[in-house]
């Protein structure tokens, strides 16, 4: 079946009464995009209410299931050129790349920022911020902050740890001027 509605201009494939500008009706509705000399991509909506983008010879690249959840295969690239496998987020100009984790009722729960002044990675979750600073080439400092004040710094070059404030554990209290000559067990 193939029809072009004269009043609406809607095109129907597999239906004589299309409700959309282009409607393909089948148990496994599929459209193939076949570029001359290029890759064939297929868009499919199946009877299980999945939406699939498939690259011929490679397999499913994106699947959105009936609940609206998405599964990606390969590298997911956001704004840029891919150099890595996995997820890559790039910023441009003065914008820094970031990933936010949020809850509709609670707002932003956590953020991961990309390269900034001297931090390679900054992660903020509920008031606690974690940074990896490029202090000594590949050996960076790991800094934990609470509301922008460093509470623990792990030096990547010397493996020394510096902390501010007080750490309280079941065995007692450790302050900034406390020295331990053995293991600390919390």
In words, what does this structure look like?
This protein has 186 residues and is mainly beta. The strands form 5 sheets. It has a 7-stranded antiparallel beta sheet with strand order 11-12-13-14-15-16-17, with no helix packed on it. It has no helices and 19 strands.
| Beta-strand percent range | over 45%
Instruction: Please trace the helix and strand order, writing H or E for each element.
Output: EEEEEEEEEEEEEEEEEEE
User: Pairing-aware structural class of the strands and helices?
Assistant: mainly beta
The first-to-last residue Cα distance is 72 Å
Give me some keywords for this one:
single chain, 186 residues, mainly beta, 7-stranded antiparallel sheet, 5-stranded antiparallel sheet, 0% helix, 50% strand
